[in-house]
Amino acid sequence: MHESLMMSRPSCRHRRRAALWPSLLLLGTLGSTPAVTTAATGPVSSLVVAGLSPVFAPDVTQYTIPKTANCSVPVTATLENPSLHRLYIASTETASGVTRNAWVCDGKTKIDIVVYQGWTEVKRYVVTPVAQATPPPTPAPTPTPAPAPTPTPAPTPAPAPTPAPAPVDVSSAARFLERATFGPTAADLAAVQQSGPSVWLAQQYQLPESPMPDGLNAGQVRSQLFLNMARGADQLRQRMLFALSQTLVVSSNKNVNGDELIPWVRLLSRHAFGNFRALLKEMSMSPSMGKYLDQANSQKTSATSEPNENYPRELLQLFSIGLWELHQDGSRRTDAQGNPLPTYTQHTVREFARALTGWTYPTRPGTAPASQNWEYFVGLMEPRSQYHDTGAKTLLNGTVLPAGQSVEQDLEAVIDNVFQHPNVPPFIAFRLISSLVSSNPSAAYIKRVADVFVNNGAGVRGDLRAVLMAILTDVEATAAPTGPHGHLKDPVLHILSLGRALGAQFGDPNMFMYIFSNLGQRVLSPATVFSFYSPLAALPGQPSLYGPEFQLYTPALALQRANFIYGILSGQFGSSFSVNLSPFTALAGNPAALVEQVNQTLLQGRMSNELRQIILTATLAAPDATQRALGAVYLAAIASEYAVQR
Fold first, then answer.
1. pLDDT tens digit string along 107-150?
2. If phi over 0 gives left and psi between -120 and 50 gives alpha, with beta otherwise, what is residue 492?
3. Nearest C-alpha neighbor of 102 from the set 33, 172, 29, 15
4. Contact 327/340 with Cβ under 8 angstroms?
5. CA of 351: how far to CAs of 294, 395, 398, 478, in Å?
């Protein structure tokens, strides 16, 4: 029924053979005079933006400017000490005192002016365009002595009101949080029960992003991201970041250093609630992606080189439209003979590759810009016109780019061409639903979400915040499960949800991250550009259904995951991953009460009678209170009722 991401060809990089199936399931100008004020001290001595309010001062970090119809806003900042600090305007390194045009369309709601010393952020100034009240018109001259009445100025639009509380039962709260977070905690369950999902979502959208500091090596980046997912207050953003990372892939298998991964994590975090077009554009200019899929330093055809096709191919196949034309509900379009219609050809890939030539890594501070810069990952890639193919190109749906366009013009045209393709809404809807809710969503569910991608209710296409809201609040996500609904938890989701449910304390994740490697899902390290598993892998024994996570749940891997869970519960990882089983040990003398405590903690009262009896029988056979408590929690944690998100 759904669109195919079929791997019909070997990848240009990082492909691997699919895992064996398991045999069982274990349990711009603004039109006003620029405001300029200099300061004697501070990392920035002056900031020039038309209409800046309040007057600039080095210690004031929040500013506004009037909204403008132009997308490009000229910004000039001057460093007090250019030899000590580096300046970034709108994520692009900029020389002190040089004007940089900052983009404020396509989901960009603010301009960041950031000062770094080495890898450390020293100061961040934020300029936010805001709607201005309409001033009263000047009365026209009139022979009548009495002036015309002055109209009331239009009020500044009020922020969206906080949704009214809508309490839900504990099972509904748990199902919602299993999709919107890395697992329900007692505090989140209580909050959602009391106020409902809509209030919780509105609060999550306002939370600041969990940090990803500078100066980390690759292992530390993986550990920090794991900790953000495990205990970050911004759970919704982290869950969306994780879902996006499984569609838009960069891996430490090639980007081996921390400075190559940090900007990528920040990019996904920053755009998690933004606009998909802005995400596509920044991803295409990202030096992290530029290295991973060889887009950086791709050159026009010459006697010794050809445009690199790796990124253009994956942009189409995996990141946006897929291989086959789709209906809005995710089903394939066919010709008169019933054959699926391809979205593009190899010629299309070559044309996209030509259009995307001429980008190089950002210029490293202290060095002169080169025709082809060496690897550097702070900021966005830079255009080099001498390496850009300026001939005409034909893109998707016969769109022709005229000859003579610049590097930047061709990039904008490519992003528009992909973003406006009718496949993007159902393709992205299916991928996100599969990651967050169910591997087998109905066609109607896909269409409802795809419709929101097309129009968020205010005429905006690609609003990921609205798409996420549609996914999580759809009746198919909130109703009690029926049929082939839900999906097997992958290793990260399974282990994190268990830890959060038990109130685990996390120390250094690097102490156990190697086990995730053994389980096939080390954070930020998928083996291929297809991520950790194919989203269209069949459910073992039921080829008509999708069961992608089962590629990481062969019998051997299922046993390894169970052993990992036992190691956590028995304290084998010390302070790096510790849980307190004393609430369960205290009930060991009353096996029925112990099993019910496990039921409420892990399954929120949804444990079946069959599983309850299995755990109760095993508990009665345990020799002491410690083993009873450990065994009861362990059996529930590896059971299918907990391992499968329903």
1. 578 898 988 887 678 899 999 998 865 544 544 444 444 444 44
2. alpha
3. 29
4. no
5. 16, 6, 11, 44
Q: Among candidates 244, 324, 319, 258, which has minimal Cα distance to 288?
A: 258
pLDDT of residue 100: 81
Could you tell me the CA-to-CA distances from 462 to 98, 276, 277, 278, 423 in Å, in that order?
33, 5, 7, 9, 12
- For residue 514, the SS3 value is helix
User: In the structure, what pLDDT confidence band is assigned to residue 70 with cuts at 50, 70 and 90?
Assistant: low
pLDDT, tens only, 165-204: 899 999 999 999 999 999 999 999 999 999 999 999 999 9
Pairing of strands 400-401, 393-394: antiparallel
Tokens of 266: 């920040």
SS3 70: coil
CA atoms lying within 13 Å on the CB side of residue 133: 9
Query: Could you give the C-alpha distances from 95 to 76, 77, 78, 215, 373, in angstroms and in order?
Result: 9, 9, 8, 22, 17
Check residue 267 and give its pLDDT: 98
How far, CA to CA in Å, does 646 sit from each of 178, 179, 243, 548, 614? 9, 10, 17, 15, 21
Could you tell me if residue 446 is left (phi over 0), alpha (psi between -120 and 50 degrees) or otherwise beta? alpha
Task: Determine the Cα–Cα distance for residues 308 and 251; give it in Å rounded to an integer.
Answer: 19
Query: Residues, the chain, total?
Result: 646
* C-alpha–C-alpha distance, residues 285 and 356, integer Å: 10
- Tell me the CA end-to-end span of the chain in Å, nearest whole number: 21
CA 50 – CA 61 distance, rounded (Å): 17
- Residue owning tokens 């066919």: 334
Strand partners, 125: 113
- DSSP secondary structure code for residue 548 in this structure: G
For residue range 253-286, what is the model confidence (pLDDT) as tens digits?
Answer: 999 999 999 999 999 999 999 999 999 999 999 9
The H or E element that residue 47 is part of is strand 44-50
Place of tokens 């980008």: 359
Strands 111-117 and 86-89: antiparallel
Which residues neighbour 90 within 8 Å (Cβ) at sequence distance 6 or greater? 75, 100, 102, 103, 108, 111, 112
* Per-residue confidence (pLDDT) for residue 121, from 0 to 100: 80
Closest to 355 in 3D by CA, of 307, 396, 317, 318: 307
H-helix or E-strand spanning residue 400 = strand 400-401
Give the number of other Cβ atoms within 10 Å of residue 41's Cβ: 9
Mean pLDDT of the chain: 89
The string of DSSP letters for 117-167 reads ETTEEEEEEEEEEE--PPPPPPPPP-SSSSPPPPPPPPPPPPPPPPPPP--
